[in-house]
Fold this sequence. Notes:
Elements: H1 16-60, H2 64-74, E1 80-82, E2 88-91, H3 93-98, E3 101-102, E4 105-106, H4 108-120, H5 134-146, H6 148-166, E5 193-199, E6 203-207, E7 224-231, E8 235-240, E9 244-249, E10 261-262, E11 275-280, E12 291-296, E13 300-305, E14 318-319, E15 329-334, E16 340-345, E17 349-353, E18 367-368, E19 378-383, E20 388-390, E21 396-398
Antiparallel strand pairs: 1-2, 3-4, 5-6, 5-7, 6-10, 8-9, 8-11, 9-14, 12-13, 12-15, 13-18, 16-17, 16-19, 20-21
Helix pairs in contact: 5-6
Amino acid sequence: MSRFGSTLLGCRSSSAYDFRVSVVSALIVAGIFLVVGMVIGAVASPRIRERRQRAAAQQAGNTISQMLQHIVAGAPLGVVVVDTHRDVVFMNDRAAQLGLVHDRLLDDRAWVAAQRTLMTGESREVDLSQRISKKQEAKRLEGLLKSDAKRWAVVKDELADVVKQYGDKRKTKVSVSADEPEFDPNAYIVDEDANVILTRDGWVKRVRELKDASSTRTREGDTVMQVLAGNTKSPITFLTNFGSAYVAKIVDIPASTGYGDPVQKLFKFKDGERVVSAVSMDARVKPAEENYLAITKNGYGLRFAIAPHTEVSTRTGRRFAKVAEGDEIVDVKPAPDDGILVVASQTHTLVCDVSEVNILANPGRGVTVIKTDDDENVVGFGVNEPLALESEKGRRWRSSR
């Protein structure tokens, strides 16, 4: 618009241009003041809010913490406020005089007493007298260690405190029944007679009746070595070529009408270990001899008592002889003291008294009964009975005893 143009009111004015410029300037100035006001308000607002909160707090009164601090400070008794870590939060002068606080921590004696009071609800007295020095404590402990009487006195006092604190009447009754039955494992075993069949290859089975041993079933190429009779509750002992005795009850031998089971299934045999003899411990059929004789293939012999091998053993068995490496026991037989022993190797035969073979109290190697060459071994022996041998070619030999 020109200087002399019409105004908003429809009339001319010589100062119309100047008037429009003044309005714009006023708007700019108002905007500047508005921004300045907002800045000043933002800066002053937190202070004003804090002043209002302080004024509201003064009107509301003291905080709980301040009130607690005033109560503790004005208490006539020693009062200490601690947290769960025994750190002191508030305390009064009386508590400091009594020695309740040490290095901003509650005295350990007072702390223990407070915990026990919280647990039991009973008040406790605490001796806050001055602690003794470390040297005095060490001297006291040394005196306790040197004197049994002083130590037992401490134990007596502590037991008296326990009785005083927990000495209420027993709430349960303790009684012993005089007629309590005893456990008898044999009571659960069927009481009957049976026969145990042992084969040459080490298979074993239990049968109730046996009319003819040759008619029982065996694996191909295997033969019956022994038939042992006895009650199912009686033990049976298996003697091996490695000098071990394995004992089980006859009832533990698997009953079978077939081949049976390998004896290694019942016990833990070593590699190459096999049964050379077995004895039924039934009193009706057990041999009367107390000692047994064992001969090895290298000519060593020993006698041992059978009594330790009449009780049921573990799977690893018990030793009755120590056999040298490369040697093994040929057979084990009952041996009366007045018996006659006949031992045969592949080329020689020896006859002697059984009493000449020592009785060993512990497992051992024994004595030399017959000397053998490096290329020959003992093939068998007999006690008070003829010894019958048969060669690979079918030739038979029988001793006179």
